[in-house]
Fold:
Amino acid sequence: MADEFSAGPDHRVGDHVAFTADVPHVYTRAQWNARPPRRPAKVLGRPPDHIVVHHTATANSSDRSLGHAFALSRSIQNFHMNGNGWDDTGQQLTISRGGIVMEGRNRSLKAVRAGDLAVGAQVLHHNGHTIGIENEGTYTNKRVPGRLWDSLVEVCVWLCQAYNLDPSQAIVGHRDYNSTACPGDVLYAQLPKLRRSVAARLNGSPSPGGVTGGQQMPAFPTFGDFG
Structure:
């Protein structure tokens, strides 16, 4: 399709495109049928300095389909615009539990291509220097699905390359900036492994293994906890 954002080799898993190259296949807003934003996102002519990992704090769905992923993006946009009164989806990128990667905030993909930042609404007081990845699910005491984890690694590799970021410093969790349980204790505990996996890919080494379980904790945020 003409509006797909992809490069390098890819292969199909089920009804969506999976990726194994450093530039992932990202489904555009047009493909998941996004609403028009209230106004275009502000684009800064400079890169972000941090990649912020979130979780949606929604149900840990077993549906890995493309249709489910697109519905997820629409539900997030509706919640952010109707519930929070924001101009558009807060985060720049969204990954479903099936590992499907989608553009979130308008102008995000074009900005990444240019090495710029489309300012989102995903980290209170820190939106002007961060780019956010929303991961479907609640990871307070549940494992991260392998497909989601693999896509998260690939997306972080892509962003670190595009913005010349050091994963050991750049990849953080939402709770590192704001008072929140996001991205859940299990996913947050995996961030050191994520940094190592991304660094290994950037250095040309095989990515170390998949995700493992983590600690258990109670409270979790809602979509409105992005600030």
Q: What stands out?
A: The chain has one domain: 10-201. The longest strand covers residues 50-55. Residues 10-201 form a domain with the Lysozyme-like fold (CATH 3.40.80.10). The CA atoms of residues 143 and 213 lie 5 Å apart.
